[in-house]
Amino acid sequence: MVLWLRHRRLLWSILVALATLLLTLLLTGRQTRPTAVGGEISSPGTVIVLDAGHGGEDGGAVSPDGVPESGINLQIVRKAEGLLVFLGRSVRLTRTGEEAIYSPEAQTLREKKVSDLKNRVALINALPHAVLLSIHQNSMPQHPAVHGAQVFSNPQEPAAGLAQSIQQALNLTVNTGNEKTAKAIGDSVYLMKHITCPGVLVECGFLSNADEAQLLRQPEQQKRLVAAIVAGYLNFGNH
Q: Is-contact 209 147, C-beta < 8 A?
């Protein structure tokens, strides 16, 4: 049993290391592409929707020194986009810049938030064979010591299995000694409730933890998170 667990950890480490290497090569400007990608895990036509949570006036959670999550979410999403496209996957982003995607008629902050969420839902539901990976940062100011990445799934199959796979990769990379369990998400998250495709929401860390908030801004940590998320996706199998 111990030997099997060691082999399993080694395989995960190799998979995440390869994803990290590919991301590093991509970000440093090398243009070589792999001749083949092992283990086709998605059906033809699957679109991976990368959602950078919040944006614009809605910054989301905020670190103790005033840094909102919206910019961090976008940085992670753009790195994930680069790696997935490099691996030959079809990718769509809900937002590509700092601004949210609310409609022009929205005026108040509340109206902009509602409009933004409805537009994201419409964008995702219009895509056939979509899978959502929504990127966020967590916060629990009343418990500033809490840290680590956790994954949540919507009710659409096979989101729960995908969330577990991504959580396992995160536990073996950024959550070592602080392992967490993937969970189903409740009805309180509008986007996850109203999309019709499988979706997972990745809380990459806690901005309420000062040390982790600093770490989440670092490109190397963002690359580790992206490598783990992509490795978890690739390891999941056909969906």
A: yes
Backbone angles phi, psi at 119, to 5 degrees: -70, -35
Number of domains in the chain: 1
Distance CA 60, CA 134 (A): 14
Contact 19, 84 (CB under 8 A): no
**Rounded CA gap, 7 and 115, in Å?**
48
Question: What integer pLDDT is reported at residue 45 of this predicted model?
Answer: 73
Q: How far apart are CA 61 and CA 69, in angstroms?
A: 5
pLDDT digits (tens, 9 = 90+) for 168-187: 999 999 999 999 999 999 88
pTM tops 0.85, yes or no: no
d(CA 170, CA 151): 9
* 220 part of a folded domain: yes
At CA 13, angle to CA 88 and CA 137, rounded to 5? 75
